[in-house]
């Protein structure tokens, strides 16, 4: 895909987008039928919206709570049907096929636009846009040969991380290079995918945080409180809110996310992942133009959830209050945790302290494979230390370092 030669690139230069107010009672089309679409539909229903999901798998997480068109994401006839049956279209993943995005923009109303997808689908384009927004990113280099990689490793130093520029999620498509002797192995592994590659310096961080920013089609902007994110095995394990960083960093992170969502001229949600470096600075890792796992805590802990905020933003409604009602820890339920969590739903008092109130969210996925996101629990608490102790006491998640 070359810049500017497809529907998305052309759109990027076509200037101002049209905006509409989509009133309650109208129908929202969602490209994708996973848990993000499901929670969007569950949050949009109280505002009177109906939902139609397009997904190749029937009766998936979203299809269980919405109408569904069962077809491949790249199926243009199905995309045209989605456009015909709905008043506004959004997506729950960023790897939307460029031709399908162009078709949907032509036949329907896609307030997020395809330019945002075009930027965030590719790590090099995304980094350039982040730098243009005034954000600091980890020093990086584009890599198109093993010799390139070797030179970049020498320049950026070790440790560093080689990533595919497109298609990565949950840490897939990455190789951490700890020593220059690993260059050949790293290149061989990632070049096999055929994707473009990017090398990043490994940021020594105190912790990872993220901010979910929203911007409505009317131009209103709002940010949720930053979450502190703990990853295990490359997958998000828990989000802690308030993040345990100095107050000035919380403010700086929200300000930075607001600046990025404005600069990207985004509509809908933009999740901004950041490293809080040991040097005290914030580095932006990546952004996602959709609801994000690290924003699931908002479901009970904020006045407005990220899903409701997304619906409000794309429909041109006033944004809701993002205020935090209570400290919270969100813990992910992967396939290997599902049996334990099902038992816990039946007898929550088995871990119970009345200091922590668990709210369960299961996604209705048929098969609970290891590492697959099956649900999450929002642990409402007075002190996030109690919720972290609750996770350890539950005995479902291996205790770090044990
Ligand atoms: P996800 O889908 O979970 O967001 P992803 O596959 O898009 O993941 P990244 O967010 O780029 O990948 O990286 C996954 C994790 O790897 C990060 O959250 C962080 O823990 C670590 N990581 C990635 N890049 C760097 C870096 N440059 N410096 C330090 N840690 C990094
Ligand atoms: Mg990430």
Question: If you had to describe this structure to a student in words, what would you say it looks like?
Answer:
The chain is of the alpha+beta class. Helices cover 31% and strands 26% of the residues. Strands 9, 10, 11, 12, 13, 14, 15, 16 and 17 form a nine-stranded antiparallel sheet that branches. A four-stranded parallel sheet has the order 3-2-1-4, with helices on both faces. Helix 7 packs across helix 8. The chain is globular, with a radius of gyration of 21 Å. The chain binds adenosine-5'-triphosphate and magnesium ion (MG). The site of magnesium ion has 3 residues, from strand 14.
**Which consecutive residue ranges, at least 5 long each, have pLDDT under 50?**
1-14
Strand content: 25-35%
Q: Assign an overall shape.
A: globular
Helical segment tally? 13
Ligand inventory reads: adenosine-5'-triphosphate, magnesium ion
- Element string (H = helix, E = strand): HEHEEHEHHHEHEEHEEEEEHEEHHEHEEH
Q: Report how far the terminal alpha carbons are from each other.
A: 47 Å
Largest sheet: 9 strands, antiparallel
Q: Quote the average pLDDT.
A: 93
Which structural class fits the helix and strand makeup?
A: alpha+beta
Number of strands: 17
Helix content estimate:
25-40%
Radius of gyration: 21 Å
């Amino acid at each position: 895909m070359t810049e500017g030669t497809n529907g998305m690139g052309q759109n990027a230069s076509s200037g101002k987008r049209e905006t509409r107010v989509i009133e309650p009672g109208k129908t929202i089309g969602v490209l994708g039928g996973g848990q993000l679409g499901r929670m969007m539909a569950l949050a949009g229903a109280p505002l009177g919206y109906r939902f139609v999901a397009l997904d190749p798998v029937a009766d998936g997480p979203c299809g269980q709570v919405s109408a569904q068109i069962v077809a491949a994401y790249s199926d243009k006839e199905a995309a045209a049907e989605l456009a015909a049956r709905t008043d506004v279209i959004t997506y729950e993943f960023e790897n939307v096929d460029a031709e399908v995005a162009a078709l949907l923009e032509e036949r329907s109303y896609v307030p997020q636009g395809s330019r945002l997808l075009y930027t965030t689908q590719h790590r090099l384009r995304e980094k350039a846009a982040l730098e243009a927004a005034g954000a600091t990113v980890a020093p990086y280099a584009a890599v198109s040969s093993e010799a390139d990689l070797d030179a970049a490793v020498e320049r950026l130093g070790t440790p560093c991380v080689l990533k595919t520029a497109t298609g990565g999620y949950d840490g897939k498509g990455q190789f951490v290079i700890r020593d220059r002797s690993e260059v050949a192995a790293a290149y061989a592994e990632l070049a096999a995918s055929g994707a473009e590659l990017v090398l990043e310096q490994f940021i020594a961080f105190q912790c990872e945080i993220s901010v979910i920013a929203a911007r409505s089609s009317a131009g209103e902007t709002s940010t949720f409180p930053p979450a502190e994110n703990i990853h295990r095995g490359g997958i998000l394990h828990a989000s802690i809110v308030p993040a345990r960083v100095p107050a000035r960093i919380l403010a700086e992170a929200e300000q930075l996310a607001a600046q990025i969502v404005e600069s990207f001229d985004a509509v809908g949600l933009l999740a901004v992942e950041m490293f809080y470096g040991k040097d005290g600075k914030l580095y932006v890792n990546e952004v996602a133009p959709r609801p994000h796992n690290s924003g699931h805590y908002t479901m009970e802990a904020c006045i407005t959830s990220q899903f409701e905020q997304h619906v409000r933003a794309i429909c041109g409604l006033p944004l809701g209050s993002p205020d935090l009602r209570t400290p919270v820890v969100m813990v992910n339920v992967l396939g290997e945790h599902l049996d334990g969590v099902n038992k816990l739903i039946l007898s929550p008092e088995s871990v119970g302290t009345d200091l922590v109130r668990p709210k369960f969210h299961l996604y209705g996925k048929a098969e609970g494979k290891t590492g697959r996101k099956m649900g999450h629990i929002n642990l409402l608490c007075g002190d996030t230390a109690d919720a972290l102790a609750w996770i350890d006491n539950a005995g479902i998640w291996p205790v770090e370092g044990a």
